[in-house]
Amino acid sequence: MATSSRSDPLDEIRFTGPVEFEGGIHNNSVLYYFATSPFYDKTSNNEVLFQQGLNNPNMMQFLATREAFEGRLRTMSGLEFIVAQEPAETSPGAGTGVWVINKQTRRKRREGEEDEISVHSVYYIVGEHIHMAPSFADIMSARLATISNFVSNILPLSASVQTWSPSTGRVYNQPPMTTTGSNPLKAITASTQQQSQESRQRSDVGLPSTRDFEEALYLHEQYGDQYMDENPITGRPGEFHLSSTGRAKVNLSAAAAAKQLPIKLPTINTKVGDSPLTSKPTGKETKSPKTPGGPGKLKRRKSSKAAVTPS
Question: Is Cell membrane set as a keyword in this record (predicted)?
Answer without folding.
Answer: no
